[in-house]
Structures are given as C-alpha cells and as structure tokens.
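FAQ: What does the model actually see?

It sees only this:
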Amino acid sequence: MNEGDWLPYAVLGGGLGLFLLAYGISVLAVPIVRRMAPRIGLVDRPGHRKIHESTMPKGGGIAVWLGTTLPVLGGLALAWALERSGLPEWVPAAVGRHVPGIVVSAPTVLAIVAGGSVLFVLGLIDDWLGLGPRTKLAAEVAVGVALALVGVRATLFAPAPWFGAALSVGWIVLITNSFNLLDNMDGLSSGVALIAGLLFFWVTVQTGQWFVSSWLLVFAGATAGFLRHNFPPASIFLGDAGSLFVGYQLSVLTIVSTFYTPTYTFFPVALPLLVLAVPLFDTATVVWIRWREGRPIFVGDKKHLSHRLVEMGLSRKEAVLVIYLLTFVAGLGALILYHTDAVGAAILLTQLLTILTLVGLLERGGRRKS
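And it is asked to produce this:
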C-alpha cells in the first residue's frame, strides 16, 4: 500500500482523536460553567417569550468555544514547532508534507479564530448584561469585513473581488444569526450544528480537504460534548455566546471549503444551501411572520419552526428530533450533488422544496385545528 492509499485513513484516525479531544474539553468544561454561572448572574430567567419555567444557567457556549479553539490553536502550534525543529522520523512523509502548508495558513487560521472569539465575547456580554440586536449585527458585519480583507471570502467564479467579499460578509451574518435564532429550544441549535458539521466533514473528506475536515471534526466534537448536557431536558443553555459562535464557525468553514473541483460537476457549489436549509427556512419564516403581523423583526417570539411544531401537538423533544431529521434528510440529499447531473440536481432541489412545503402545510393544518 503506497502513501496515497493509507493517508486518508491516517487523517481520519487523527481526526477521530481530535474529535475526542474536543469532546473531552467541552464535556468537562460544562459542569464547571454550570456551577459558576449562577454565582456571576449568567442565567436565563423565565419570561413571556421563554418556554422554560425555572431559572437556567447560561454560558454553555464557553465549553463549545474552548473545545473548538484550544485544539485548533494547539494543532497550529504543533505544526509550527515541527517545522522549526524538523520532522521526527515517526512522522510519515505524506503527513509531513502538509505541515508547511498549515504554517503558511497560520494568519488565516488566527484571523478566523479571532473573529469567532470576538463574537463569542460579544455574545457572552449579551448573555450577562444584554445588548441590542443592532450592536450584535454591527459586530457581525465588522468581523465579516475584516475576514474578507485578509482573504477569507468566496469567489463563485466571479471576476470582481468585491462580489466575493460582499457575498461572504452576507453569508457570515445570515448563518450566524440563523443559529442564534434557532437557539429557542433545548438541544436545537447545538444539535443542528452538530449534524451540519458532520455532513460538511464528509464533503471535505470526499474532496481531500484534510485541514478543513479536521477543523470540522474538532467543532463537531466540541458541540457534541455540550449537547450531552443540553439535549432535552437541558441542564444548561447555549446562550448567545454559543449560538453566535456555532453559526459563525459553520459560515466561515463553508467559505474556506472548496465545493467545486474539476473531478465533479458544478452543482456542489449549492451544497451549503441544502445542508443549512432548515436553519435558513426557520429564519425566513419567522422573519416573514413578524413582518406580516407588523411586529419588529428583531424582537423574539414563539413563532419559530420548533414552536409551530409544538402547536401541532408534538412535545418539545419530538419537535427537536423532527428538526434534526429534516436537517439530516436535506444534508443527505446534498451529498448526492457530487454524483449527479443537472436533472439529478433539479430533482434534489425539488425534493427539498417539497419537504419544506409539506412541513408548512402540516403547520397550517395544525393551526386551523387548534
């Protein structure tokens, strides 16, 4: 077996180790945060727009941030050390060849980590003291612009760099806010982020993007560690610090990923839209409902997809599981984009739209019955 044959298995084995490392950091950090949160006032109290009936600790995002950021920075430091000291004999040559590339990518990696940390801290302040939605939106735009200026931007084959930059900023703001809005029921935002992260991981493995796939596994591990404590009934909430961070991670990692390669057809460029279709659907419908009813778009309510499923008669846990399944089904369809033609891509898109329309019709029937 030559190097090219066993390299994917070596990377996947290392990726599993990274997943477990991130999972361990996150799952161990949660109990510490849970004990400390009430002492410093980092709690979520019941209210007319809330569905929980008792005061709950927030700050679960701290565990997700630690579980994601520490392994990424540790891996970067290890690559830098290996390049400076020379590769030990036990490091396979096929793996060692990637070390210089990781070091060269260090400024981009640090910029992404810094952007996520800024939004994490902003969300933590919001969880603690409360911030207006426009402040958070301005920060998201500023982070997106800063990343675009250092080269973290999509192209979509457009000749004008400003188009890719503007598209990237809009994508970061949209996905970050979608997961922030999705955090309205136990285990919902973190569970959907975990499913989406694993789906994107599989895509990057197919296309040989080993560094991005490793980062996605780290993110998935950190999210899974938190979800262990957040799945209904939750013992701690993700908070704005966490929901902004997980949305940001997915938005940026999809930007730095390459979904088109000459080996495959052009259609996989639409893959992020399909994998993230459910959070985008939730955001679009709740904004439309608020606009239709003449209420401020930035003021929270109980009109999200999860709430509407509960109105149909599902329990909260059942509503969360339905959204998990919808996300998984949409993502599975997206994976086929690497193995289909224009007709197949059109069928997949039609299938997704049909599923979402069916959900809308079932919601409408449930409201009429109630």
